[in-house]
Protein backbone atom coordinates (compact mmCIF):
# COMPACT_ATOMS: atom_id res chain seq x y z
CA UNK A 1 0.00 0.00 0.00
CA UNK A 2 1.23 3.46 -0.86
CA UNK A 3 2.07 5.99 1.84
CA UNK A 4 0.23 8.78 0.02
CA UNK A 5 -3.55 8.95 0.07
CA UNK A 6 -6.32 11.09 -1.31
CA UNK A 7 -8.88 12.54 1.05
CA UNK A 8 -11.49 10.04 -0.15
CA UNK A 9 -9.10 7.13 0.47
CA UNK A 10 -8.35 8.41 3.98
CA UNK A 11 -12.08 8.64 4.61
CA UNK A 12 -12.65 5.02 3.59
CA UNK A 13 -9.69 3.84 5.68
CA UNK A 14 -11.06 5.72 8.69
CA UNK A 15 -14.62 4.41 8.34
CA UNK A 16 -13.43 0.85 7.84
CA UNK A 17 -11.29 1.12 10.96
CA UNK A 18 -14.34 2.36 12.88
CA UNK A 19 -16.32 -0.73 11.93
CA UNK A 20 -18.37 0.67 9.07
CA UNK A 21 -16.85 -1.75 6.59
CA UNK A 22 -18.88 -4.51 8.27
CA UNK A 23 -22.51 -5.34 7.67
CA UNK A 24 -24.82 -5.10 10.62
CA UNK A 25 -25.79 -8.43 12.18
CA UNK A 26 -29.07 -9.86 10.97
CA UNK A 27 -29.77 -12.31 13.80
CA UNK A 28 -29.54 -12.22 17.56
CA UNK A 29 -27.21 -9.52 18.87
CA UNK A 30 -25.30 -10.26 22.05
CA UNK A 31 -22.15 -9.37 23.94
CA UNK A 32 -19.93 -10.91 21.24
CA UNK A 33 -21.08 -8.13 18.92
CA UNK A 34 -20.31 -5.52 21.58
CA UNK A 35 -16.78 -6.90 21.77
CA UNK A 36 -16.42 -6.63 18.00
CA UNK A 37 -17.54 -3.00 18.08
CA UNK A 38 -15.07 -2.25 20.86
CA UNK A 39 -12.32 -3.88 18.84
CA UNK A 40 -12.97 -1.14 16.27
CA UNK A 41 -13.57 1.86 18.52
CA UNK A 42 -11.87 0.96 21.81
CA UNK A 43 -14.05 3.04 24.10
CA UNK A 44 -17.52 4.53 24.33
CA UNK A 45 -17.94 8.08 25.57
CA UNK A 46 -20.58 8.61 28.25
CA UNK A 47 -22.97 11.53 28.29
CA UNK A 48 -26.00 12.09 30.50
CA UNK A 49 -28.19 14.05 28.05
CA UNK A 50 -31.27 11.89 27.46
CA UNK A 51 -33.38 13.95 25.07
CA UNK A 52 -33.12 11.15 22.48
CA UNK A 53 -31.27 8.35 24.25
CA UNK A 54 -28.10 8.51 26.29
CA UNK A 55 -25.23 8.99 23.91
CA UNK A 56 -23.31 5.86 24.88
CA UNK A 57 -26.03 3.71 23.31
CA UNK A 58 -25.79 5.36 19.90
CA UNK A 59 -22.37 4.09 18.72
CA UNK A 60 -23.68 0.53 19.14
CA UNK A 61 -26.89 1.29 17.25
CA UNK A 62 -24.88 2.97 14.47
CA UNK A 63 -22.81 -0.19 13.97
CA UNK A 64 -25.16 -2.97 15.07
CA UNK A 65 -28.64 -1.62 14.48
CA UNK A 66 -31.30 -2.71 17.00
CA UNK A 67 -29.75 -4.56 19.92
CA UNK A 68 -30.45 -5.24 23.59
CA UNK A 69 -30.06 -1.96 25.42
CA UNK A 70 -28.56 -3.78 28.38
CA UNK A 71 -25.34 -4.73 26.54
CA UNK A 72 -23.16 -2.08 28.18
CA UNK A 73 -24.44 -2.44 31.79
CA UNK A 74 -24.36 -6.23 31.47
CA UNK A 75 -20.76 -6.16 30.24
CA UNK A 76 -19.85 -3.79 33.07
CA UNK A 77 -21.48 -6.06 35.66
CA UNK A 78 -19.59 -9.01 34.19
CA UNK A 79 -16.25 -7.21 34.62
CA UNK A 80 -15.62 -6.71 30.89
CA UNK A 81 -15.92 -2.92 30.92
CA UNK A 82 -14.90 -0.28 33.42
CA UNK A 83 -15.50 3.44 33.51
CA UNK A 84 -12.66 5.93 33.53
CA UNK A 85 -11.69 9.39 32.31
CA UNK A 86 -10.08 8.69 28.94
CA UNK A 87 -11.36 10.75 26.00
CA UNK A 88 -13.87 12.00 28.53
CA UNK A 89 -15.83 9.75 30.87
CA UNK A 90 -15.84 6.49 28.93
CA UNK A 91 -16.65 2.81 29.04
CA UNK A 92 -13.36 1.00 28.33
CA UNK A 93 -12.45 -2.70 27.96
CA UNK A 94 -11.15 -3.77 31.34
CA UNK A 95 -8.00 -5.37 29.94
CA UNK A 96 -6.80 -1.88 28.99
CA UNK A 97 -6.92 -0.65 32.58
CA UNK A 98 -3.16 -1.12 33.22
CA UNK A 99 -2.51 1.40 30.44
CA UNK A 100 -4.03 4.09 32.67
CA UNK A 101 -2.14 3.30 35.86
CA UNK A 102 0.24 6.21 35.21
CA UNK A 103 -2.76 8.53 34.87
CA UNK A 104 -4.21 7.22 38.12
CA UNK A 105 -0.96 7.98 39.89
CA UNK A 106 0.09 11.34 38.46
CA UNK A 107 -2.02 12.72 35.62
CA UNK A 108 -1.70 16.54 35.54
CA UNK A 109 -5.49 16.81 35.19
CA UNK A 110 -5.92 15.52 38.75
CA UNK A 111 -3.35 17.75 40.48
CA UNK A 112 -5.92 19.82 42.38
CA UNK A 113 -7.73 16.71 43.55
CA UNK A 114 -4.48 15.16 44.77
CA UNK A 115 -3.80 18.37 46.69
CA UNK A 116 -7.26 18.15 48.26
CA UNK A 117 -6.61 14.53 49.28
CA UNK A 118 -3.26 15.47 50.84
CA UNK A 119 -5.02 18.16 52.87
CA UNK A 120 -7.81 15.82 53.99
CA UNK A 121 -6.27 12.35 54.53
CA UNK A 122 -8.70 11.55 57.36
CA UNK A 123 -11.65 12.19 55.06
CA UNK A 124 -10.20 9.97 52.32
CA UNK A 125 -9.64 7.14 54.81
CA UNK A 126 -13.14 7.51 56.25
CA UNK A 127 -14.74 7.31 52.80
CA UNK A 128 -12.74 4.17 52.00
CA UNK A 129 -13.77 2.67 55.34
CA UNK A 130 -17.42 3.48 54.62
CA UNK A 131 -17.21 1.73 51.25
CA UNK A 132 -15.43 -1.25 52.79
CA UNK A 133 -17.99 -1.62 55.58
CA UNK A 134 -21.25 -0.66 53.88
CA UNK A 135 -20.68 -1.57 50.24
CA UNK A 136 -21.50 0.47 47.12
CA UNK A 137 -22.81 3.99 47.57
CA UNK A 138 -23.65 7.18 45.75
CA UNK A 139 -22.24 10.54 46.74
CA UNK A 140 -25.44 11.58 48.52
CA UNK A 141 -25.09 8.59 50.88
CA UNK A 142 -22.14 10.33 52.54
CA UNK A 143 -24.38 13.15 53.82
CA UNK A 144 -21.60 15.71 53.70
CA UNK A 145 -23.27 18.23 51.46
CA UNK A 146 -22.50 21.81 52.29
CA UNK A 147 -24.42 23.43 49.43
CA UNK A 148 -28.14 23.31 48.49
CA UNK A 149 -29.17 19.82 47.41
CA UNK A 150 -30.11 19.04 43.84
CA UNK A 151 -27.57 21.29 42.15
CA UNK A 152 -25.72 19.44 39.39
CA UNK A 153 -22.50 21.31 40.17
CA UNK A 154 -22.64 20.38 43.85
CA UNK A 155 -19.12 19.07 44.55
CA UNK A 156 -19.07 18.81 48.32
CA UNK A 157 -16.23 17.22 50.22
CA UNK A 158 -17.72 13.72 50.08
CA UNK A 159 -18.18 13.85 46.32
CA UNK A 160 -14.66 15.21 45.88
CA UNK A 161 -13.26 12.39 47.99
CA UNK A 162 -15.08 9.77 45.93
CA UNK A 163 -14.00 11.37 42.67
CA UNK A 164 -10.40 11.53 43.84
CA UNK A 165 -10.50 7.82 44.72
CA UNK A 166 -12.15 7.08 41.38
CA UNK A 167 -9.38 8.86 39.51
CA UNK A 168 -6.64 7.11 41.51
CA UNK A 169 -8.22 3.76 40.74
CA UNK A 170 -8.85 2.78 44.35
CA UNK A 171 -12.56 3.07 43.68
CA UNK A 172 -14.50 1.97 40.59
CA UNK A 173 -17.86 3.21 39.41
CA UNK A 174 -20.88 1.99 37.51
CA UNK A 175 -24.04 3.81 36.48
CA UNK A 176 -27.42 3.51 38.15
CA UNK A 177 -30.15 2.92 35.55
CA UNK A 178 -32.78 5.13 37.14
CA UNK A 179 -30.93 8.43 37.47
CA UNK A 180 -27.61 7.67 35.76
CA UNK A 181 -25.67 8.64 38.88
CA UNK A 182 -22.32 7.04 39.65
CA UNK A 183 -22.41 4.11 42.04
CA UNK A 184 -19.01 3.82 43.73
CA UNK A 185 -17.39 0.70 45.16
CA UNK A 186 -13.91 -0.54 46.02
CA UNK A 187 -12.04 -1.42 42.84
CA UNK A 188 -11.16 -4.84 44.24
CA UNK A 189 -14.86 -5.73 44.29
CA UNK A 190 -15.48 -4.54 40.73
CA UNK A 191 -12.33 -5.06 38.65
CA UNK A 192 -11.10 -8.63 38.07
CA UNK A 193 -8.11 -9.48 40.25
CA UNK A 194 -6.01 -10.50 37.25
CA UNK A 195 -6.41 -6.98 35.85
CA UNK A 196 -5.67 -5.26 39.15
CA UNK A 197 -2.55 -7.38 39.61
CA UNK A 198 -1.30 -7.02 36.03
CA UNK A 199 2.00 -5.12 35.67
CA UNK A 200 1.63 -1.56 34.46
CA UNK A 201 3.87 -0.12 31.75
CA UNK A 202 5.75 3.11 32.28
CA UNK A 203 4.01 6.32 31.33
CA UNK A 204 5.94 6.54 28.05
CA UNK A 205 5.26 2.93 27.12
CA UNK A 206 1.59 3.22 28.08
CA UNK A 207 1.21 6.31 25.92
CA UNK A 208 2.87 4.53 23.02
CA UNK A 209 0.43 1.64 23.36
CA UNK A 210 -2.49 4.08 23.46
CA UNK A 211 -1.22 5.89 20.36
CA UNK A 212 -1.01 2.58 18.50
CA UNK A 213 -4.54 1.75 19.61
CA UNK A 214 -5.72 5.17 18.48
CA UNK A 215 -4.15 4.52 15.07
CA UNK A 216 -5.91 1.17 14.94
CA UNK A 217 -9.27 2.78 15.74
CA UNK A 218 -8.76 5.73 13.36
CA UNK A 219 -6.93 3.79 10.64
CA UNK A 220 -5.12 6.94 9.64
CA UNK A 221 -4.77 10.32 11.33
CA UNK A 222 -2.64 13.28 12.24
CA UNK A 223 -0.65 13.49 15.46
CA UNK A 224 -3.48 15.58 16.91
CA UNK A 225 -6.07 12.99 15.87
CA UNK A 226 -4.20 10.17 17.58
CA UNK A 227 -3.43 12.15 20.73
CA UNK A 228 -7.04 13.32 21.03
CA UNK A 229 -8.45 9.79 21.09
CA UNK A 230 -7.18 9.14 24.63
CA UNK A 231 -6.49 12.82 25.43
CA UNK A 232 -2.71 12.47 25.56
CA UNK A 233 -0.11 15.23 25.68
CA UNK A 234 3.58 15.36 24.72
CA UNK A 235 3.38 12.62 22.10
CA UNK A 236 5.52 13.90 19.22
CA UNK A 237 8.71 12.05 20.20
CA UNK A 238 6.70 8.91 20.97
CA UNK A 239 5.16 8.95 17.50
CA UNK A 240 8.63 9.22 15.96
CA UNK A 241 9.75 6.19 17.97
CA UNK A 242 6.69 4.22 16.89
CA UNK A 243 7.42 4.97 13.25
CA UNK A 244 11.06 3.96 13.71
CA UNK A 245 9.92 0.70 15.32
CA UNK A 246 7.48 -0.02 12.48
CA UNK A 247 4.43 0.13 14.71
CA UNK A 248 3.10 3.14 12.82
CA UNK A 249 3.58 4.14 9.19
CA UNK A 250 4.33 7.75 8.26
CA UNK A 251 1.90 8.85 5.54
CA UNK A 252 0.43 11.92 3.88
CA UNK A 253 -3.12 12.78 2.89
CA UNK A 254 -3.78 15.13 0.02
CA UNK A 255 -5.12 18.46 1.30
CA UNK A 256 -4.18 17.83 4.93
CA UNK A 257 -1.60 20.29 6.22
CA UNK A 258 -0.13 17.99 8.87
CA UNK A 259 1.76 14.71 8.41
CA UNK A 260 -0.30 11.60 9.10
CA UNK A 261 0.26 8.19 10.62
CA UNK A 262 -1.34 4.89 9.66
CA UNK A 263 -1.69 1.65 11.56
CA UNK A 264 0.10 -1.22 9.77
CA UNK A 265 -3.13 -3.25 9.71
CA UNK A 266 -5.24 -0.44 8.26
CA UNK A 267 -7.29 -1.44 5.24
CA UNK A 268 -8.31 0.65 2.24
CA UNK A 269 -11.62 -0.76 0.98
CA UNK A 270 -12.95 -0.05 -2.49
CA UNK A 271 -16.13 1.33 -0.98
CA UNK A 272 -18.02 1.86 2.24
CA UNK A 273 -21.74 1.15 2.23
CA UNK A 274 -22.70 2.48 5.61
CA UNK A 275 -25.90 4.02 6.86
CA UNK A 276 -25.88 5.40 10.39
CA UNK A 277 -27.05 8.19 12.64
CA UNK A 278 -24.00 9.24 14.61
CA UNK A 279 -23.94 10.41 18.20
CA UNK A 280 -22.36 13.84 18.70
CA UNK A 281 -19.79 11.88 20.73
CA UNK A 282 -19.12 9.11 18.23
CA UNK A 283 -15.36 8.77 17.50
CA UNK A 284 -16.05 9.44 13.82
CA UNK A 285 -17.06 13.03 14.62
CA UNK A 286 -16.04 13.83 18.20
CA UNK A 287 -12.88 15.67 17.08
CA UNK A 288 -14.51 18.39 15.00
CA UNK A 289 -11.33 19.39 13.15
CA UNK A 290 -10.91 15.79 11.95
CA UNK A 291 -14.55 15.63 10.84
CA UNK A 292 -13.98 18.70 8.69
CA UNK A 293 -10.83 17.24 7.15
CA UNK A 294 -12.38 13.84 6.49
CA UNK A 295 -15.85 14.86 5.35
CA UNK A 296 -15.85 18.61 4.75
CA UNK A 297 -18.50 18.63 7.48
CA UNK A 298 -18.61 21.59 9.85
CA UNK A 299 -20.23 20.32 13.04
CA UNK A 300 -20.83 21.96 16.38
CA UNK A 301 -23.12 20.61 19.07
CA UNK A 302 -25.57 23.30 20.14
CA UNK A 303 -26.83 21.93 23.47
CA UNK A 304 -25.24 24.84 25.32
CA UNK A 305 -26.24 27.48 22.77
CA UNK A 306 -29.34 29.57 23.68
CA UNK A 307 -32.31 28.37 21.66
CA UNK A 308 -32.69 31.53 19.56
CA UNK A 309 -29.07 31.26 18.43
CA UNK A 310 -29.12 27.59 17.42
CA UNK A 311 -28.61 26.93 13.73
CA UNK A 312 -29.62 23.27 13.48
CA UNK A 313 -31.12 22.34 16.84
CA UNK A 314 -30.53 21.01 20.33
CA UNK A 315 -29.43 17.38 19.79
CA UNK A 316 -28.27 17.05 16.22
CA UNK A 317 -26.93 13.80 14.77
CA UNK A 318 -24.86 13.64 11.58
CA UNK A 319 -26.19 11.14 9.03
CA UNK A 320 -23.58 8.87 7.46
CA UNK A 321 -24.51 7.40 4.09
CA UNK A 322 -21.93 5.46 2.12
CA UNK A 323 -18.67 7.16 3.02
CA UNK A 324 -20.04 10.68 3.37
CA UNK A 325 -21.85 12.74 5.97
CA UNK A 326 -24.82 13.85 3.91
CA UNK A 327 -27.21 15.44 6.41
CA UNK A 328 -27.88 16.28 10.03
CA UNK A 329 -31.06 15.74 12.02
CA UNK A 330 -32.31 17.18 15.31
CA UNK A 331 -33.98 14.31 17.21
CA UNK A 332 -36.02 13.92 20.36
CA UNK A 333 -37.80 10.97 21.93
CA UNK A 334 -41.39 11.81 22.82
CA UNK A 335 -41.73 8.96 25.29
CA UNK A 336 -45.15 10.00 26.54
CA UNK A 337 -46.70 9.77 23.07
CA UNK A 338 -44.41 7.05 21.72
CA UNK A 339 -42.96 9.02 18.84
CA UNK A 340 -39.53 9.86 17.50
CA UNK A 341 -39.58 13.57 16.74
CA UNK A 342 -37.57 15.00 13.86
CA UNK A 343 -37.44 18.62 14.97
CA UNK A 344 -35.28 19.70 12.06
CA UNK A 345 -33.39 18.04 9.21
CA UNK A 346 -30.78 19.62 6.97
CA UNK A 347 -28.99 18.27 3.91
CA UNK A 348 -25.42 18.92 2.86
CA UNK A 349 -24.80 20.74 -0.45
CA UNK A 350 -25.04 18.66 -3.60
CA UNK A 351 -26.85 15.62 -2.20
CA UNK A 352 -29.60 13.65 -3.94
CA UNK A 353 -32.35 14.75 -1.56
CA UNK A 354 -34.83 12.03 -2.49
CA UNK A 355 -32.27 9.27 -2.03
CA UNK A 356 -30.93 10.66 1.24
CA UNK A 357 -34.46 11.16 2.58
CA UNK A 358 -35.45 7.59 1.69
CA UNK A 359 -32.42 6.12 3.44
CA UNK A 360 -32.83 8.40 6.46
CA UNK A 361 -36.50 7.50 6.73
CA UNK A 362 -35.62 3.80 6.99
CA UNK A 363 -32.95 4.50 9.60
CA UNK A 364 -35.27 6.67 11.67
CA UNK A 365 -38.00 4.04 11.63
CA UNK A 366 -35.45 1.44 12.70
CA UNK A 367 -34.36 3.69 15.56
CA UNK A 368 -37.94 4.39 16.66
CA UNK A 369 -38.63 0.66 16.88
CA UNK A 370 -35.42 0.04 18.84
CA UNK A 371 -36.35 2.76 21.33
CA UNK A 372 -39.86 1.38 21.76
CA UNK A 373 -41.48 4.48 20.23
CA UNK A 374 -44.30 2.48 18.73
CA UNK A 375 -46.16 5.38 17.10
CA UNK A 376 -43.29 5.98 14.71
CA UNK A 377 -41.57 9.07 13.35
CA UNK A 378 -42.98 12.58 13.22
CA UNK A 379 -41.22 15.11 10.97
CA UNK A 380 -41.52 18.84 11.62
CA UNK A 381 -41.26 21.42 8.84
CA UNK A 382 -37.92 22.84 9.91
CA UNK A 383 -34.92 22.35 7.60
CA UNK A 384 -34.36 22.15 3.86
CA UNK A 385 -34.57 18.34 3.84
CA UNK A 386 -37.88 18.23 5.74
CA UNK A 387 -40.17 18.21 2.64
CA UNK A 388 -38.31 15.25 1.10
CA UNK A 389 -38.39 13.35 4.41
CA UNK A 390 -42.09 14.10 4.87
CA UNK A 391 -42.77 12.89 1.33
CA UNK A 392 -41.15 9.54 2.19
CA UNK A 393 -43.71 9.05 4.95
CA UNK A 394 -46.72 9.46 2.65
Offer a quick outline of the entry.
The protein is α+β, with helices and mostly antiparallel strands and 394 residues long. Helix content is 38%, strand content 18%.
Question: What report would you give on this structure?
Answer:
The chain has 394 residues and is an alpha+beta fold. The chain contains 15 helices and 14 strands. The strands form 4 sheets. The chain has a 5-stranded mixed β-sheet with strand order 10-11-12-13-14. A hairpin with a 1-residue loop joins strand 11 (316-322) and strand 12. It is globular, with a radius of gyration of 22 Å. Residues 150-154 have low confidence and may be disordered.
What would the keywords be for this entry?
394 residues, alpha+beta, 14 strands, 18% strand
Oligomeric status: single chain
Strand % is 15-25%
Classify the secondary structure makeup into a structural class: alpha+beta
pLDDT < 50 stretches = 150-154
Lateral strand order in the biggest sheet: 10-11-12-13-14
Helix content: 25-40%
Distance between the amino and carboxyl termini? 48 Å
Amino acid sequence: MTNEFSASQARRIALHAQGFGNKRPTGRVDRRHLRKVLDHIGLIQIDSVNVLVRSQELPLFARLGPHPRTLIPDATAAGELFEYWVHEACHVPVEQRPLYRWAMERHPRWASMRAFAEERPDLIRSVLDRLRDDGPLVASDLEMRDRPKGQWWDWDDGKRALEHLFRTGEVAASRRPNDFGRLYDLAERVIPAAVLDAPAPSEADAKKELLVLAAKYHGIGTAADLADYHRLAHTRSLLAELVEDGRLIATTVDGWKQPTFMHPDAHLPRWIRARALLSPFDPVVWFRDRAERLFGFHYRIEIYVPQPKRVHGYYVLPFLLGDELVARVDLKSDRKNGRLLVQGVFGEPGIDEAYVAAEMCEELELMAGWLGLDHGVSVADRGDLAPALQAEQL
